[in-house]
Amino acid sequence: MAAFRSAALAVLIAALLLVLILAAIAGLRSNPEDLPWTPLHLSQPVGLFTGRKLAGLHDKGPKCEKLLTEAGVRFETAPPIKDGICGYTDGLRLAASGARRIVLAPADPVMACPVAAGLAMWEWNIVQPAAQRYLGAPVVAIEQLGTYNCRSIRGSATALSEHGSADAIDVSAFRLADGTRITLSDDWKGDGPRATFLHTVRNGACKLFSTVLSPEYNAAHRNHLHLDQAARGAMGWRACR
């Protein structure tokens, strides 16, 4: 009898494990954005591997531009630039129309295509939902401090900044449709809706960009979010600070 009970228990456990495995497979199939081998689509929700797939577009300009076009993002390509160790081959300027509703100010900065793709998904999945939830109005403009800039990382004499390949953008403020202006320098601290919004969009950016540096990182970032798509490989380290 004891042997029969042990065998029955083993069969029951195996059946439960099979059910759990089948449920997990079904869940992943219904959420392809959570799988590392499924193709990236910018119109999909943000998944577990979305950020790595976006960073994987580095040096894949035509593929990246195709993804933008399919998602309804309008842009103009920029001529390649070679300036010593700096430069880019996949630079573009986002147009203030199409599927995107947020403009950049100053307008028309040149950025690498993976940065543009990350910004589009950040707007749709993170920024606008957070603005409506915490501030009650949509964002109409993102103020930025620059994209392409041939320079080293601040504090280093040799390490090239991601700005040197147009793979980064520094975001300093958000303008709402009702005229409200939310800035990193004035609104980051505290627990009010403005600070909650800024922390939410920072945390969301960490799912889409290789590196996100905020005022919590150091004094050099007290007034902006640094967002970049550094190419560190499929399993490379990611920074969110």
TrEMBL record:
Superkingdom to which the source organism belongs: Bacteria
Species of provenance: Sphingomonas panacis
UniProt xrefs under InterPro entries: Extensin-like_C
Protein name per the record: Extensin
Domain Extensin-like C-terminal per the UniProt entry, residue ranges: 63-241
